[in-house]
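## tool: complex_structure
## caller: assistant
## args:
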Amino acid sequence: MIHLLCLLVFLTLGLTAKAQESIVLGLSQDEVAITASFTGSEILIFGAIRRETPAPANSELGVIIAVAGPNAPAAVRRKERVAGLWVNSETVNMDIAPSFYAVATSAPLDEVLLPLENYQHAVSADRIVRAEGQTAFDSNEFTEAFIRLKERNRLFQVIENAVIIDQDTLFHTSISLPSNLTEGNYRTRIFLTRNGQVVDHFDTIIPVFKVGIERWLYNLSQSYAALYGLLSLVIAVVAGWAANAAFAALRR
Amino acid sequence: MQIYLPIAEISVNAYLLLGIGGLVGVLSGMFGVGGGFLITPLLFFVGIPPAVAVATSANQIVASSVSALLGHIKRRGVDYWMGSVLLIGGLVGSAIGVQIFNLLKSLGQVDLLVNLCYVVFLGIVGGLMMVESLRALTRSKSAPPKRRRHNWVHNLPLKVKFRVSGLYISIIPPILVGMSVGVLGAIMGVGGGFIMVPAMIYLLGMPTKVVIGTSLFQIIFVAAFTTMMHAITNHTVDIVLAMLLLIGGVIGAQFGTRIGTRMKAEQLRILLAGLVLAVCLKLAADLLLRPGELFSLGDLM
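## result:
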């Protein structure tokens, strides 16, 4: 029993010795409010690396910051030529696909993160997005196309060398959230790596939500759909009548 | 000025939306078409999600059609009797069309059918109208147009007098026209004004000036019905987007109505035919040419 305890203590010590560097984090804003004049937002993410012992020599320090929006499954369609016409033939559903995904790194991703660590922690977009029935270790052209199309809309971003590390202790980066943002919790993960091995990681949530008139209209459309529909129609009819009346008055 | 749309969940330029609404409003007032076949692709282009674009354009069509209709009422250019008969046929047709649409959706390939429908119908309608109105234009220079001859349409039973249209015909052809437009509209996701207008001119023999007001009268109800269906079942009507579009739309419709009444009926028909053929060619090109990007994103299947 005592031997076992000793072993346990030894193991814990060994583990803490391994995780001698840890992350202390700060955010420029801990929530994002979408107002009527919202045109996107810039979030500054900064932090420090806390050490119990001096920094290990001859090993490369890396910081990776990944921000993921709420899951938004979508379908990817491929066009094919059938009897001379280009038609959508195959469709693959992306079951796990964040609405937004940004990865910022302190150096090229394959330098700061080993492939095995990438698999384990699911950091790059192709490790996050999962087509239906797809296993963790294969990728197909549909997931690739999905990521490509999302990148074109700036909804997926890979920003290498964007995390600045100062004197091996302080780091900061900014993530720009586009205007076509989906509401929800944005999971933010920060990884600290040494020679491509993850030595510490930190998780936090940045809530993104509509406020004011945006919130009110959205709730109305969801909870009182019929009333909302009628309101839309009344506005349409009144606007049509008003324009006609205004023009008639102008001509007189 | 950027504005964030609560349902579409995207920030867009308000002036751009006013402009799109205005353009479609002008067409609506001039030709009596709802403009759904034009506004939805324009909204896709701005980045509005397809489901929101389809539902919201129905709402905007209500506004611009009301605005244009009031202008036509003043000129006695609306045949309410004919409009109601077409509408009854249209609603029955849409109910049938929705069933066909869902059946095709379960079989897959609904996209292809919708696109082919567009190309075929736009092509036929645009082509026939172009040929006819060009012929009418050259003829009207030499001799006054002849009164339409009687054909089989005039020999059917259940005759009714449509005074505004100056017609004494059976109620069956308008019901059938309304129904077929309703079926096609539901499958193609449009109000069907661009099919309805030529059908009223060529199949029913209504005068062009009455056709536009009557078509608008009918479209208002179909578009209002569509808006409610989308708002209740899909929650995809964006009221802020609709408001920006309809401010442009109702003003545009007023200009369109004025332009329309100052033009010759044949010229009006040539312009509408040109517009319909242009959209047809664009869709045909999409089907025949190899697209730059083979993949596209869509709603979950």
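## assistant note: Residues 78 and 213 of chain B are 5 Å apart (CA to CA). The longest strand of chain B covers residues 2-5. Handing back to user.
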